[in-house]
């Protein structure tokens, strides 16, 4: 075999080998990525406005959200998932703050970080009125803490 | 018709163990024993040289494989059925809770022993040439042990499992660029759920144990090739200088060979002359006197260590139950929610800063551990010559232990500092 043909065949072989390995690795990563997530929907109805009381927020455990209802300002929905490591925060009426049980993060009533390791404020989700009059929360739509829905 | 005796001879083909040839053949004709040399240095098996920590770690791994396979007969990786299976193992299956206890306590024991083994190797300088890369393999085995513990932690699907893994996987999510993707691949979703349980199960019973077995084989093989178990070479007497023989005419680079007295028990033949220094430690003639046949000297000691390990795990499992809390409830975070104890140092760091404590510091620690044999170029293994290395490593160990103790015992509801003797009520 001539040196030139050895080099070109060798290069071709090496390129083929590398691409085969690359494609296989890509296929493995894609295989491990689920095509469908069998998880609760991101957008869901939470009930009629009348179901929610004024005063302390209602905690919906399944959805991990707090529903705030204010007489003047209306409805707002906050995420109960701590922005630090994903524990579920609790709302304490006596000091009107969210406390995370895992690492002691404290959030103000508007979700701002007051204390602890949480890097970001709690997230607020868009809440709208569905056609049937129920409240609808969309976790894919993050809104500012000032967002309110008047009903 | 073949006699029974001949059948036996077809299985066990070595000479009787009363002969030296039989003792050697027991080792090198046997697949399971041939990782041993036929003869070992008596010195290597002294308890205080290694505390048998490597052996104990390996034996704990054997217990984990055995009890783990037993548990698999009654366990389904399917939430919330898994939790029912755990309850069955605890109250219905014959010996179920005992086997689960053994599995749980050996897992904790293995994490401890791997760590102590690593400390022993460091303090005796056993990672120094030619064993640098074996230290690296050892660090990977340590990480795999943590990975096995972590994946196993989720399987009971109780509150402890669910929240420890939620916290743990979110720490991984902080890794820059790849973090979120890595978390999604590991969990098969965006939060700990059914797909995460199945993935952790497959990693725990198939993927990680296979890698551990492969690396352990390499680890043992290299120990053997590098001269056997480590020992304090700095305490050995320097070899007596024998007369020198010169080979070759008078070339400048000629090699001087030391003449050693021939052993009476050995037949010598000139097989091949190779130049260059062997990479591994060799037995000199002085040390030859200290060697004994592996059978029974080494095997007896290893068997004692095995029996002591199994007995201890069984004794602990008789008296202490592995914890099982209530069914996992994603809506209710226990207060405080704690990761497995060996990750509580990490959680303590994370409670101050997630990115720095959860990603940067642990990554630097792992890279630092891997690089130790290549950073430390001091050839001496004598402790007196390596004061700074020993101080630095001791600091690393102490910081780790202190952080774990704080995280385990001194952190109460809301991660507030609470001493262990104070009982906090009404935390929920």
Explain how this protein is built.
The complex is a heterodimer of chains A (151) and B (428). Chain A folds into two domains: 1-38; 43-143, Rieske [2Fe-2S] iron-sulphur domain (Rieske Iron-sulfur Protein, 3-layer Sandwich). Chain A contains one helix and ten strands; from the N terminus they run H-E-E-E-E-E-E-E-E-E-E. Chain A has one helix at residues 3-32, and strands at residues 43-47, 58-60, 65-70, 74-79, 90-92, 97-99, 106-107, 113-115, 124-129, 135-143. In chain B, helix 5 (81-91) crosses helix 6 and helix 13 (344-350) packs across helix 14. The longest helix of chain B is centred in the middle third of the chain and has 32 residues, at 194-225. The N and C termini of chain B lie far apart (78 Å). Chain B has helices spanning 4-11, 20-28, 47-50, 53-72, 81-91, 96-123, 132-154, 159-172, 179-187, 194-225, 285-288, 294-319, 344-350, 354-375, 387-409, and strands at residues 39-41, 244-246, 256-258, 291-293. Chain B is 56% helix and 3% strand. Classes of the chains: A alpha+beta (151), B mainly alpha (428). At the A-B interface, loops of A face helix 8 of B.
């Amino acid at each position: 075999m001539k040196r030139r043909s050895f080099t070109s065949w060798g290069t071709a072989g090496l390129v083929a080998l590398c691409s085969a390995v690359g494609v296989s690795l890509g296929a493995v990563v894609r295989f491990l990525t689920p095509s469908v997530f069998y998880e609760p929907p991101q957008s869901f109805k939470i009930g009629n406005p009348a179901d929610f009381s004024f005063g302390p927020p209602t905690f919906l455990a399944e959805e991990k959200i707090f529903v705030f209802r204010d007489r003047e300002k209306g409805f707002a929905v906050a995420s109960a998932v701590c922005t630090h490591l994903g524990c579920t925060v609790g709302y304490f009426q006596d000091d009107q703050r969210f406390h995370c049980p895992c690492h002691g993060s404290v959030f103000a009533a508007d979700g701002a970080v007051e204390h602890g390791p949480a890097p970001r404020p709690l997230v607020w989700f868009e809440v709208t009125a569905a056609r049937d009059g129920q409240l609808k929360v969309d976790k894919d739509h993050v809104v500012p803490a000032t967002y309110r829905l008047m009903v | 018709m073949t006699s029974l005796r001949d059948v036996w001879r077809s299985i066990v083909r070595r000479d009787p163990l009363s002969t030296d040839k039989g003792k050697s053949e027991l080792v090198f004709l046997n697949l399971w024993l041939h990782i041993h040399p036929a003869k070992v240095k008596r010195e290597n098996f002294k308890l205080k040289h290694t505390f048998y920590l490597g052996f104990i770690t390996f034996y704990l791994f054997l217990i984990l494989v055995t009890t783990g396979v037993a548990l698999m007969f009654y366990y389904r990786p399917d939430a919330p059925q898994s939790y029912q299976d755990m309850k069955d193992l605890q109250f219905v299956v014959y010996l179920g809770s005992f086997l689960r206890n053994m599995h749980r306590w050996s897992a904790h024991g293995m994490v401890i022993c791997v760590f102590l083994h690593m400390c022993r190797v460091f303090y005796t300088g056993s990672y120094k040439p030619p064993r640098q890369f074996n230290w690296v393999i050892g660090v990977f085995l340590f990480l795999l042990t943590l990975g096995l513990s972590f994946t196993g932690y989720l399987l009971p699907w109780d509150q402890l499992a669910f929240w420890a893994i939620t916290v743990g996987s979110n720490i991984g999510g902080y890794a820059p660029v790849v973090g979120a993707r890595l978390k999604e691949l590991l969990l098969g979703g965006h939060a700990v759920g059914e797909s995460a349980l199945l993935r952790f199960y497959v990693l725990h019973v198939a993927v990680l144990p296979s890698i551990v077995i492969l690396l352990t084989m390499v680890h043992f093989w290299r120990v053997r090739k590098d001269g056997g178990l480590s020992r304090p070479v700095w305490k050995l007497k320097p070899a007596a200088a024998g007369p020198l023989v010169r080979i070759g005419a008078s070339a400048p680079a000629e090699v001087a060979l030391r003449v050693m007295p021939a052993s009476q028990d050995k037949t010598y033949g000139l097989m091949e002359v190779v130049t260059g220094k062997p990479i591994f430690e060799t037995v000199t003639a002085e040390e030859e006197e200290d060697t004994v046949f592996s059978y029974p000297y080494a095997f007896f000691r290893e068997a004692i260590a095995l029996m002591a390990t199994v007995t201890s795990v069984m004794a602990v499992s008789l008296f202490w139950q592995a914890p099982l809390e209530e069914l996992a409830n994603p809506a209710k975070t226990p207060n405080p929610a704690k990761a497995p104890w060996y990750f509580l140092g990490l959680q303590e760091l994370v409670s101050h800063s997630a990115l720095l404590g959860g990603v940067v510091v642990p990554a630097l620690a792992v890279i630092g551990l891997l690089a130790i044999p290549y950073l430390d170029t001091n050839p001496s293994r004598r402790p007196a010559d390596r004061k700074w290395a020993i101080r630095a490593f001791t600091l690393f160990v102490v910081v780790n232990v202190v952080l774990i103790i704080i995280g385990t015992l001194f952190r109460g509801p809301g991660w507030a500092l609470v001493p262990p003797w104070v009982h906090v009520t009404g935390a929920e």
